């Protein structure tokens, strides 16, 4: 990896960690750059401003999440396992860590005022819904879209619940809650 991609990656990781440590986007580029071991000027050179740096961090989070979901989908032998794989990826130790959860929450806030963040969030929601529906269609037919929406809401809700009280939630307990929701949804169809 050449110097520029390496420095960009360091800045992205530092951004995620600083947002997690602070709990908001109220962090300076200087503090992010210091954590990354580079100058603030270099961070501005690579990203232009703090919002672009944060958007790059969220693209990274989405890329990591997407790779885990794709891996889970490839390994799934059937439709229910596809949905379960998505749920497990949503709460994996890579995706369900405090700094990533904090980044997600701030991403939702940023999407209210930033068009590019809103677009990225919309892409995430469409992909999540599509992946869930692909697994749910053979199991729930016409109800698949509604179930996919509710499961997506449960995922978001579990992230919010962790953010408000991290001592009550782990990736494992979040996965268990989401899997129980899936079982209840599918059981209600029987």
Describe the protein's architecture and organization.
Helix content is 81%, strand content 0%. It has 190 residues and is mainly alpha-helical. The protein has a domain at 58-189: Tetracycline Repressor, domain 2 (Orthogonal Bundle). Helix 2 packs across helix 3 (40-47) and helix 4 packs across helix 6 (98-111). The radius of gyration is 18 Å and the shape is elongated. The N and C termini lie far apart (53 Å).
Ends: how far apart?
53 Å
CATH topology of the domain at 58-189: Tetracycline Repressor, domain 2
State Rg. 18 Å
Uncertain residue segments: none
- Superfamily (CATH H level) name of the domain at 58-189: Tetracycline Repressor, domain 2
Number of helices: 9
Oligomeric assembly:
single chain
Shape: elongated
Helix content: over 70%
Please name the CATH architecture of the domain at 58-189.
Orthogonal Bundle
Quickly list its features.
elongated, about 190 residues, single chain, Tetracycline Repressor, domain 2, about 0% strand, mainly alpha
């Amino acid at each position: 990896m050449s110097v520029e991609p390496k420095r960009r990656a360091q800045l992205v990781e530092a951004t995620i960690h600083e947002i997690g440590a602070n709990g908001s986007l109220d962090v300076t580029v200087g503090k992010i750059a210091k954590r990354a071991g580079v100058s603030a000027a270099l961070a501005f050179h690579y990203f232009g401003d703090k919002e672009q740096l944060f958007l790059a961090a969220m693209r990274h989070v989405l890329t990591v999440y997407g790779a885990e979901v794709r891996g889970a989908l490839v390994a799934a032998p059937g439709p229910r396992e596809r949905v379960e794989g998505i749920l497990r990826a949503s709460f994996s130790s890579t995706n369900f860590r405090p700094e990533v959860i904090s980044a997600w929450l701030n991403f939702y806030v940023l999407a209210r005022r930033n068009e590019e963040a809103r677009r990225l969030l919309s892409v995430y929601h469409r992909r999540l819904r599509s992946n869930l529906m692909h697994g749910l269609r053979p199991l729930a037919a016409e109800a698949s879209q509604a179930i996919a929406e509710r499961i997506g809401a449960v995922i978001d809700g579990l992230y919010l619940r962790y953010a408000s009280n991290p001592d009550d939630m782990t990736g494992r307990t979040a996965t268990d809650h989401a899997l129980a929701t899936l079982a209840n949804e599918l059981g209600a169809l029987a």
